[in-house]
Design a protein that fits this description.
The protein has helices spanning 2-24, 28-34, 104-109, 136-150, 165-176, 199-204, 210-225, 227-240, 249-267, 282-292, 300-317, 355-368, 414-428; strands at residues 39-44, 52-61, 72-81, 88-92, 112-116, 158-163, 183-187, 322-323, 338-339, 373-377, 396-400. By secondary structure, it is of the alpha/beta class. It folds into three domains: 1-27; 36-194 and 356-428, Alpha/Beta hydrolase fold, catalytic domain (Rossmann fold, 3-Layer(aba) Sandwich); 202-344, no CATH class. A seven-stranded mixed beta sheet has the order 1-2-3-5-4-6-7, with helices on both faces. β6, α5 (165-176) and β7 (183-187) form a beta-alpha-beta unit. It is globular and about 65 Å long. It starts with a helix and ends in a 6-residue tail after the last helix.
Length: 434
């Protein structure tokens, strides 16, 4: 009996003191994070770039105008730590995130980073999907609160960045909180001024060479002419991939054909020599289509995932439609001269576009957008609605000739890359290793 009593006593003492033992082995950063109210911290395995990695859930107001008594939700971020004395890169993602994400800037600057999931995506979804709280002002307030929390730990320069929709989010963050961080680096970020911005059509009418654009149009027409042979292939493709097409098979096909030219230039995966001739077999025509413009975009799961984005697109940040005049003789389901993408937005929501907001943001960025470095690909369709910088700012806009939506700082070489590095060095007051 004494033996069991001593064993029980030992276990009790061990458990009682375990939290103090663990506290002893907590890092300085871990201790600082645990002192912050309204966050949940999960320590993850480090890697070769970062000595400490954390998954953090920040309690955010759903409505920052009613932050004390309103509904809350948890916003997920990943913190990748290397050194308190280094800058902090904050990537404002436009969608869901995963821990494997690493920013280009953290590698260039050899510094810390946080990856921020956008509200209404991934694990950062409120219990109530009230669409009225999904807007640029609320998202920017989320980001500002995260900065204010972590600036108490990371006191060096801060950089806000993001890619595509994340780049838009970065621009909007600058508009609402112009002094929140020191430098802003949006990548391939459109700034649309209409619910469906027609500058996209002008771009597609002029990008590349006449021969390439003509080949694209002939290929699209060949797809539509061969619909009777291609639709059974698409149906089999849908079944093989366990896709569902809420728009229906034929409308999905026509929309993907219309999307082809946008995707061709946006992603730059293929060159004009890869486009099948108009008299090629239906099999080859279809194979090229699902390679260049994948159908997963039209799958039911994908459409559900992107609903928050399309709500934002059709209420504030804008999108695009398809100009169909070259194909009206071959289209069956798509009837309008400008085929809208509004069908991807949630059907139970009011979709009134706030045109004045984007005009105000555009004006502010043009006149007051200092310390902003923009990265664009010259052939990327989204560059059609790229930011214009004004003469009274120190902003820098870099366009990679022939670049696409994957254009990054490391896509540039020579004097152009040196200009990017020297700009960052000046604004951050640091030296970047070449």
């Amino acid at each position: 009996m004494k033996k069991y009593f001593m064993y029980f006593l030992f276990i009790t003492i061990f458990i009682t003191n375990s939290k103090y033992l663990s506290q002893e082995y907590l890092t300085e950063l871990n201790k600082k994070l645990l002192e912050i109210p309204d966050i949940k911290v999960n320590k993850l395995q480090p890697d070769s770039q970062f000595s400490e990695i954390y998954e953090i859930f920040v309690t955010q107001p759903l409505d920052h105008l009613n932050s004390f008594n309103g509904i809350k939700f948890s916003q997920r971020i990943y913190l990748h730590h290397t050194d308190f004395n280094k800058p902090m890169v904050m990537e404002n993602d436009g969608y869901a995130i995963d821990e494997s994400r690493r920013t280009e800037l953290s590698k260039i600057l050899k510094c810390n980073e946080i990856i921020v999931e956008h509200r209404y995506f991934g694990e950062s979804v409120p219990d109530s999907m009230d669409w009225k709280y999904l807007n640029t002002a609320q998202a920017a307030a989320d980001h500002n609160r995260i900065v204010q929390i972590l600036k108490n730990i990371y006191k060096e320069k801060w950089i806000s960045t993001g890619i595509s929709k994340g780049g838009q989010t970065t621009i909007f963050f600058k508009y609402y909180y112009p002094n929140a961080v020191d430098v802003w680096v949006p990548y391939v970020a459109p700034l649309n001024l209409e619910q469906e911005d027609n500058r996209i059509h002008t771009f597609l009418e002029n990008v590349g060479t006449d021969d390439c654009r003509n080949k694209i149009e002939k290929y699209q027409r060949a797809l539509l002419k061969n619909r009777n042979e291609i639709l059974p292939m698409l149906n089999s493709y849908m079944e093989e991939h366990n896709y569902t097409f809420p728009l229906g098979l034929e409308k999905t096909f026509e929309y993907d054909v219309m999307e082809y030219s946008f995707s061709f230039w946006q992603w730059g995966n293929l060159n004009c020599d890869n486009i099948p001739d108009q008299d090629d077999t239906p099999e080859n025509l279809f194979k090229h289509l699902y390679t260049a413009s994948p159908f997963d975009y039209f799958d039911g799961k994908s459409m559900t995932y992107f609903q928050p984005f399309f709500y934002q697109a059709y209420t504030e940040i804008g999108y695009y439609n398809y100009e169909t005049s070259d194909f009206t003789d071959l289209l069956i389901d798509v009837k309008d001269k400008y085929a809208s993408n509004i069908c991807f937005a949630p059907q139970n929501a009011e979709l009134n576009f706030n045109k004045k907001l984007m005009e105000n943001i555009n004006s502010y960025i043009y006149n007051y957008g200092n310390n902003m470095l923009y990265i664009y690909g010259g052939n990327d369709t989204w560059s059609a609605t790229s930011v214009n910088i004004g003469p009274n700012t120190n902003a820098v806009k870099m366009i990679k000739k022939g670049g696409n939506h994957r254009t990054r700082i490391n896509s540039f070489t020579g004097d152009e890359k040196e200009k990017i590095y020297s700009t960052l060095e000046k604004w951050l007051n640091i030296k970047i290793e070449r």
